[in-house]
Amino acid sequence: MFSKPEQRLLNDPYFQIVRCNETFYELQSRNTLHYWMIRKNYNAESFRIELHHKHKVHDYYHTQYRNVSTVKKAIRIIKDHDQYVLNLLHQ
Length: 91
Known about the structure:
Shape: globular
Number of strands: 5
Strand order of the largest sheet: 1-2-3-4-5
């Protein structure tokens, strides 16, 4: 389950929440329109977050990062990825 501070981070206006439950949030970046799933992995001993990514709604998710230790770090990875994509588009 996501804590209240994690939920506040995930409710960032940077994202559109597509769907969520106790174990995952599916988000869409408002900047790149890419989709992301932040999933709690309760079976992992040292890392609890899996980060999955896809470009379009009908694509399949692929695992972007398996070993993210916090929701805050996962969000930073998403925003850094968006910046990378946007920089490529403007070259």
